[in-house]
Specification:
It catalyses: Endonucleolytic cleavage to nucleoside 3'-phosphates and 3'-phosphooligonucleotide end-products. With 359 residues, the chain is an alpha+beta fold. The protein contains 7 helices and 22 strands. The chain has one domain. β18 and β19 form a beta hairpin. The longest helix has 20 residues.
Length: 359
Amino acid sequence: MCFFYMLLTLLHVLLYVLPCQSEISCRNEDGEPVDWFIMYKLPKYKIGDVGSGLDYMYLDSTLKDWRMSKFLVNTSQGALGSTLKPLYTGEELRSNSSAYMFYNDAPPLMNYTTKYGHTKGALHFDQSQGFWLVHTVPHFPPFPERGYSWPNTGKMNGQTMFCVTYKYGQFPQIAQQLLLYNPHVYNCSLPAMFQREMADVALLCSGSKLPWVPETRLQKLVSAKGETLLSFAKSHFYVDDIYAGWVAQALETTLLAETWQHNGRTLPSNCSLPEHVLNINEILLPGPVRFRSYYDHSKWCVSWIREDRWVCLGDLNRVNTQAWKSGGLVCSQNPLIYQAFRQAVAHYISCNTICERMI
Ligand SMILES: *[C@@H]1O[C@H](CO)[C@@H](O)[C@H](O)[C@H]1NC(C)=O
Ligand SMILES: *[C@@H]1O[C@H](CO)[C@@H](O)[C@H](O)[C@H]1NC(C)=O
Ligand SMILES: *[C@@H]1O[C@H](CO)[C@@H](O)[C@H](O)[C@H]1NC(C)=O
Ligand SMILES: *[C@@H]1O[C@H](CO)[C@@H](O)[C@H](O)[C@H]1NC(C)=O
Ligand SMILES: *[C@H]1O[C@@H](CO)[C@H](O)[C@@H](O)[C@@H]1NC(C)=O
């Protein structure tokens, strides 16, 4: 009898406690599971201040606004490091019950190639749940064997990261979006048990030629805690600026866009179509921390009208060479995310460039 109860207790521990502790999820600054988080890695050159290039602002559903992190982004202690940590422990790597995929057009230890989509991110999931991290950092994350680190090239400019936790059932949808992205998958593990249900991930991991894909694909996703997201994916067959040509018109809202516009060939603010896209050129975060878009490699946009509440984060810049590039945006109407990004718009350029508008 006693043995029987011990066995039951043990089963209970194995079934409920262990999976919970090791659940695959986006993680907050304390390493605890969260439904989503957003990080804004600050550029080295701010207005009136030169920083380390490693400090960042953090946002999740438990906060009211951006919070300056007490960690630097190069340590594995912050939200990003905690989220990716299981991938840097040998144990998880040898596990055959979870799958992961790293993709980046500028992978670590390799040169940038133009063959693939202009897209960067990571997936990690088991048959219960996992996360999709979308980010803008070249040469990140490192190969699992090499441990967590931050690339030197990722210090100078601002960068954004958007992590969302999803139930297993959402990953086939995410993978379909990624087929349009045509990502450069540089490291991947898809154990046998996933091969059938995650056939598109298998295809992406194999590096073989991808099937025919449409120009664009819009997919509703639902986070593990029920947050609705819209995923916009464009393949290289869709030759246009994703922001003005598609997303603003699809969301039926004028967008303020913050993208890397460092060198020539940048697209100006655009008021040709029913919904406009206006370029942001200065960012203001709590602190206050101010910086110019010139030093910001982030890619995000926010609806101009406050009632519409759209925020999208993703892969593509408003430069004419990226009309031919595949990639996408993940959009949310969460009021907290909207508030955080809308307030961050310090200055944008209206279509009549003679009068730049202050907000
Ligand atoms: C992170 O960067 C800071 C500043 O350059 C450095 O002092 C620290 O040792 C780095 N930490 C890690 C874990 O690399
Ligand atoms: C997973 O690994 C365990 C132990 O390493 C092994 O017994 C099991 O057969 C493996 N399962 C699959 C589906 O490969
Ligand atoms: C990357 O490109 C540089 C310059 O073209 C070249 O010297 C280097 O060997 C390349 N590295 C790799 C890993 O291919
Ligand atoms: C505005 O954007 C649309 C869609 O990308 C494009 O067709 C149009 O030429 C742009 N207008 C100007 C003035 O650049
Ligand atoms: C990353 O993926 C794992 C699992 O597929 C391989 O075992 C590693 O060899 C691979 N690492 C590199 C550097 O390619």
